[in-house]
Amino acid sequence: MLNAALRVPPSPIFDQMEFMPDAFSGRREALPHYVQSPFPEDYWLSLRFLLSYDGSTATFNAYRREIERLLQWCWLVQEKSVCALKRDDIEKFIKFCMEPPRAWIGTKNCARFVGPDDLRKPHEDWRPFVASVSKVQARAGMHADTADYAPSQSALKSLFAILSSYFNFLIQEEAIGSNPVALIRQKSKFLVTTSRREVRRLSNLQWDFVLETAGMMAAEDPAKHERTLFVMQCLYAMYLRISELVADERNVPLMTDFRRDSDNNWWFEVVGKGNKERSISVSEAMLVALKRYRRHLGLTPMPVSGERTPLVPTLGGKKPVTSTRHIRAIVQLCFDTAVERMRLEGLEDESHELQAATVHWLRHTGISEDVKFRPVDHVRDDAGHASSLTTDRYIDAERRARHASARHKPMKTES
């Protein structure tokens, strides 16, 4: 018989950072009213772990999601403390995450809690797991179904990494003696090892259409779309991640992050993934794009010392864009407009593929093009890759040659 806890959706455990209690004071407060747990120390340990990642909202959210699921499974399904988990328990939890009960799966992303500070209550539609459909499927009228939920390989790899960090933290806190995740010898039961991960990028034709479309949009409505053109150029020419365009707790990207060295070469200084700083070499074409956008904003051609202009300001304002969702909307509108133009010109296959593109494809496209003629280590450093092995994924020369040798294979054997 199905465990009663599996038939009803659990309530969220962790709110946004600003609404959570102080986990580091010596004095233990009562658990928040919405947390019902027979193991309160699990909550405080987990909260301390999560708050140690308060420097990055994206990282905090990813860790919160996985640790919250773990605690819900421990308390409601296994009825044991997280500190009592062994290797076999972790394997059970991974399997649970691969096939969660239908009642724990939603079909839309919801806020965990609603209401003012002192009246925070769980959102009734929130679920620990969310089924979704692709952009192409959504446009075709398809809707997410809880029966179709399936975590991706990247999500499972992330789960393993986060759980391992969490249990290492518990060891440091002297709450447990060993890391049960590290004791799993056959992660291959859950993870598929691939020799090469496909790089999702735009074709040269698609990128030409997208860039041309952004230019046309800027010409038709400069007040709105000069920014669109500049954003597209930044993402492609400097391989920027979407998070590197917006302001957050760590950093506010500014125009003055473009800097000239003693050799008269321009660099763009960015705080990227893992809170790491890097310098990106700026091409002459990117400098032309920067000057155009600054002229549109009524600024000097190049940034001047002491200037505080955001790299991507809000429309008609001087404040920086702070939401990655805002950037995604800018890019998606450009993609959608390019798709329609391609269809009108009879490029049905190319337009269909472009519908699936995301913001990150622009970074992949820029890197993939540059490794054709730039030294790999130069591209690696500009992209912020920790290893050249990551950059090597973008080199397609060998695959192109292999495909060329197979292209004209006959179906019939020659007599």
What does this molecule look like?
- There is one protein chain.
- The protein is mainly alpha-helical and 415 residues long.
- It has two domains: 4-189, Orthogonal Bundle (DNA polymerase, domain 1), CATH 1.10.150; 204-397, Orthogonal Bundle (hpI Integrase, Chain A).
- The protein contains 15 helices and seven strands.
- Helix 7 packs antiparallel against helix 8, helix 8 (222-237) packs antiparallel against helix 9 (284-296) and helix 10 packs antiparallel against helix 11 (348-354).
- The mean pLDDT is 87.
Defining key terms:
two-stranded parallel ribbon, 5% strand, 2 domains, DNA_brk_join_enz, DNA polymerase, domain 1, 7 strands, mainly alpha, globular, hpI Integrase, Chain A, 15 helices, three-stranded antiparallel sheet, 415 residues
Radius of gyration: 25 Å
The N- and C-terminal alpha carbons lie at a distance of 66 Å
Mean pLDDT score: 87
Q: Helicity, in percent? A: 40-55%
Instruction: Please tell me what the overall shape is.
Output: globular
Count the helices. How many? 15
CATH superfamily of the largest domain: Intergrase catalytic core
Approximate strand percentage = 5-15%
Task: Please provide the ordered H/E string of secondary-structure elements.
Answer: HHHHEEEEHHHHEEEHHHHHHH
The number of distinct structural domains comes to: 2
What is the CATH topology descriptor of the largest domain?
A: hpI Integrase, Chain A
Number of beta strands: 7
Structural class: mainly alpha
Task: Please give the largest β-sheet.
Answer: 3 strands, antiparallel
Query: Which CATH class of the largest domain applies here?
Result: Mainly Alpha
How are the strands of the biggest sheet laid out side by side? 5-6-7
User: Which stretches are poorly predicted, pLDDT < 50 over at least 5 residues?
Assistant: none
CATH architecture verdict of the largest domain: Orthogonal Bundle
